[in-house]
């Protein structure tokens, strides 16, 4: 019998200044997958080696660049990983996945986190595996190995997360190279290898409250920065002064963003960071000046400003004055020959969902 469902996964912004690899917020900009499975449908010509006909809407971010073979595309590769861990080699025959993706790729808005969460949910649904969100997080964390975007995308809202300490055997399973986790393009021949199952309950998280008056302004430069490159410029060790600087702010920020009225004199300094943003200025023209170009005293309504995820998007939290704040940052980027678009985005309070089509 034919069946159909829709998977929706929010974008996310990680770090929020001092919470490197810890804090994330789900953003109401949704990656959507319309999935139909009709085993009686006539097989497609040029059919996919794993029975999945994948398409993107024309207006999707990445529509002309993402691969459409199921063992090459991040969403469907992830789904295949979940299926193969559970002894299902491919999608059911007659599977069609139509993607609508408004999340810009490689800009610090959690496009890969959303793709991985969507892929794990897709594998769980088509394989009828019945996993909880907590178990699905384990699968996600085998692929995207820091929990901030993944947790925000899966659970929604404003979340803090950490990875539990693993036993040596679990470490071996989890630190296996990604190429041995995700299926590699096979040229049609399935090697039959069963990928490593994720250890259980890898990620732990809490959801904080969020003052609903606080909106997110995303100023999105027109160039991509891969998360891998942006992590590559970070040091391996930090001084205790810099670590304490961030920990103090992190502790205050998680409550400051819940209070009413929100206090810019607390939030603005609590969003400062010494762990990742100073090092990323080499990859993002004008970053240091841009982050100090708007303050609550020059732009009333502004609460705080930071790099969104690994960048290059700038995230400003504000209750008012959205156009002027965005325009100032856009003008600063323009002086460095970088053009931007911008959006005001609400939080996605509920996280990823599956609903009938
Ligand atoms: N909807 C999608 N479909 C297929 N591949 C995707 C999709 N979204 C993201 N990707 C893959 O993920 C890559 C971007 O991941 P990357 O981690 O570098 O950036 P990001 O997730 O947008 O930023 P950040 O992690 O800082 O928030 C894209 O180049 C593409 O390969
Ligand atoms: N915490 C991550 C988020 C990006 O995926 C980083 O800043 O590299």
Give me a quick take on this structure:
This protein is α+β, with helices and mostly antiparallel strands and 357 residues long. 32% of the residues lie in helices and 22% in strands. The protein folds into two domains: 3-205, Ribosomal Protein S5, domain 2; 210-345, Alpha-Beta Plaits (2-Layer Sandwich), CATH 3.30.70.
Polypeptide structure, described:
The protein has helices at 74-85, 111-126, 133-143, 147-155, 168-174, 178-181, 227-232, 240-256, 264-270, 277-280, 287-293, 322-335, and strands at 3-14, 23-37, 52-56, 95-100, 158-163, 203-208, 215-221, 302-307, 314-318, 340-345, 353-356. It has 357 residues and is of the alpha+beta class. It has 2 domains: 3-205, Ribosomal Protein S5, domain 2, CATH 3.30.230.10; 210-345, GHMP kinase, C-terminal domain (Alpha-Beta Plaits, 2-Layer Sandwich). The strands form 2 sheets. Strands 1, 2, 3, 4, 5, 6 and 11 form a 7-stranded mixed β-sheet that branches. The chain has a 4-stranded antiparallel β-sheet with strand order 8-9-7-10. Helix 1 (74-85) crosses helix 2, helix 2 (111-126) crosses helix 3 and helix 11 packs antiparallel against helix 12. The protein is globular, with a radius of gyration of 21 Å. The structure holds adenosine-5'-triphosphate (ATP) and L-homoserine. The site of adenosine-5'-triphosphate has 23 residues, from helix 1 and helix 2.
């Amino acid at each position: 019998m034919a069946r159909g469902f829709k998977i929706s996964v929010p974008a996310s912004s990680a770090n929020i200044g001092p919470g490197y690899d810890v804090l994330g917020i789900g953003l109401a900009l949704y990656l959507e997958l319309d999935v139909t499975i009709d085993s009686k449908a006539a097989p497609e010509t040029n059919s996919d080696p794993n029975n999945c006909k994948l398409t993107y809407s024309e207006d999707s971010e990445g529509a002309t660049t993402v691969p459409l073979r199921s063992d090459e595309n991040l969403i469907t590769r992830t789904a295949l990983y979940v299926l193969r861990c559970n002894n299902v080699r491919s999608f059911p025959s007659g599977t069609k996945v139509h993607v609508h993706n408004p999340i810009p790729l490689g800009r610090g808005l959690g496009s890969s986190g959303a793709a991985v969460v969507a892929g794990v949910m897709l594998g769980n649904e088509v394989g009828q595996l019945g996993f909880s969100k907590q178990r699905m997080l384990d699968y996600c964390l085998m692929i995207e190995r820091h929990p901030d975007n993944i947790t925000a995308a899966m659970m929604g809202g404003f979340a803090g997360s950490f990875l539990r300490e693993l036993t040596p055997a679990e470490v071996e399973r989890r630190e296996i190279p990604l190429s041995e986790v995700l299926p590699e393009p096979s040229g049609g021949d399935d090697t039959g290898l069963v990928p490593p199952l994720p250890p259980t309950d890898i990620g732990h998280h809490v959801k904080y409250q969020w003052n609903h008056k606080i909106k997110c302004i995303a100023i999105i430069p027109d160039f991509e920065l891969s998360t891998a490159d942006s992590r590559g410029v970070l040091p391996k060790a930090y001084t205790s002064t810099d670590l304490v600087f961030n920990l103090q702010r992190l502790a205050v920020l998680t409550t400051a963003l819940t209070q009413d009225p929100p206090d810019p004199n607390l939030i603005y300094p609590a969003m400062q960071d010494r762990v990742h943003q100073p090092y990323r200025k080499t990859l993002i023209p004008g970053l240091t000046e841009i982050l100090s170009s708007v303050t609550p005293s020059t732009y009333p309504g502004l609460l705080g400003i930071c790099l969104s995820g690994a960048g290059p998007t700038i995230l400003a939290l504000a209750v008012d004055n959205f156009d002027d704040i965005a325009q100032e940052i856009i003008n600063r980027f323009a002086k460095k020959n970088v053009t931007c678009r911008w959006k005001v985005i609400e939080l996605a309070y509920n996280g990823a969902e599956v609903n009938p089509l």
